[in-house]
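Sample entry (576 residues):
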Amino acid sequence: MSKYRDTVRKYFYCFLLGPFFMVLEACGEFILPFLNANIINKGAARGDIGYIVENGVYMLFIALFMLASGVLGAYFAVKGSTHLAADLRKKTFVQIQKFSFANIDDFSTGSLITRITNDITQIQTFSQSLLRGVFRSPVMLVGAIVMSFALNPRLALVICVVVPLLALAIAFIIKTASPRYTVMQKRLDALNNSVNETITNEYVIKSFVREAYEKEKFAAVNEELMEKSVRALKMMLLLQPLSTLAIGAATLAVVWIAGGQIMVGSMEIGTLTAFITYLTQVLTALDFLANIFLQGTRAAASDRRIAEVLQAEISLDDTGAAYADKKITQGSIVFANVSFRYFKKNTEKVLDDISLRIEAGEFVGIVGSTGSGKSTLVSLIPRLYDVDEGCVLVDNTDVRELSLKHLREGIAVVLQKNTLFSGTIAENLRWGNEEAAEEELMWACRIAQADDFVRALPEGYETELEQGGSNLSGGQRQRLCIARAILKNPKILILDDSTSAVDTATDARIRKAFAKELSGMTKLVIAQRISSVQEADKIIVLEEGRIAGIGTHAELLVSCTPYQEIYYSQKDGEKG
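Predicted structure, serialized as tokens:
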């Protein structure tokens, strides 16, 4: 409950006034039938118009009072529950932003989306119902029972029989429905995962003409969600028929018993009318409470799922950062006996006993076959993951002893997947530097060989990008991502195969601009093409998670067999 404490304190008046006004409305619920009974028994029976008008006016004022109380109660309930959901959504989103890659791997994207939307909506709906009915329904229930006994104790015994039976049935429904809601939410996760994957990879699906397969896969997931939803909700559907049956049976019993009393003159028609109203109120209040419990069952399942996110242990944080205020000023990098596994239970290491030193300002190339650990190696520098053994040092300080903020401020990474956001090109570039002037944007784009094509666009740097930059080519997206990283002016620049979509001539111009404009910046370039790193100060060759060789292009051609194989296979490919 600690996750709700701050919101409840901040909007305490909503959580007090909402139930308060709903209780006032409930008080009117059991006063009105009593007045109505008096009008029938005393006013109508005696033909006393004055008495009827007087009590009618009382009923009108009470009805208006109930209307105002109900509106105010609903207003505060909606306001309180809405703020509760908004604050919880914010806390959950902030927590997700703290997640390391390892944490994100524990939760699928679809699951996180479901939790921050559907699950929190369930909690909001329940909290609103709770504020409107947590006191109103019990007050109405108790008040109606008391009034029933005051009117006719013998008839009130019918309520004492019906209510426990209905309560037992409701308890059974809630107990059965609870685990089914949890299963239903998991199936919703699966559906969101499927939709997210399909939409994200729409280009691949169309290029392989796999629309029919995806439709079948989605239909299966959708069908499973429907079955689990029906299974969970059909228990809830039993509630209304049971309540109706209870009201009907109780009303018949009351009318049958009251009929004899009316015949002998020991009971009046108005009293019977009021009693039936109170009976309906009792069962309606019980029905409303049952709905709150059912919503609570579903909300409890959602609350557990939100708690899993909020209570997830962040695998990377600044705990133990001995040099939290230290910033990267040079850009030297050392790997000392580094080993790493993605799955800690797996004995196979992705990187095994890596040791190397990169001096500040060096241009370092990293090559190797697919799966050799190139991307994993560079991801350890900004602490996207932590090493299992050994350590990574930047500026002669273990990265685990630096604050993540200062560490990552000094490093810019251009990943294999080129991520751009909806907005203008200028807005995307300023992710690297929010305060960058237009001249700085153009400077970075000139280095990344993007300025010419950006200027050729109708709106230039103010051109709106579609989601993911889908209205640009792959090479254009790569160059903008490189420009965005340069604009950050980092001490260490990491390019993870980020020129693979540009032609060799453009790639050469980017390298030339790097050497001229970014000479003081440490540059690590992962490349598939040897030509992209041929001029590097040193080239690191990885093979199956180990270093197969380190040296210049000329040195590796002589001493490193894996490098020779890569180089000559590419040479042969160019000739072919």
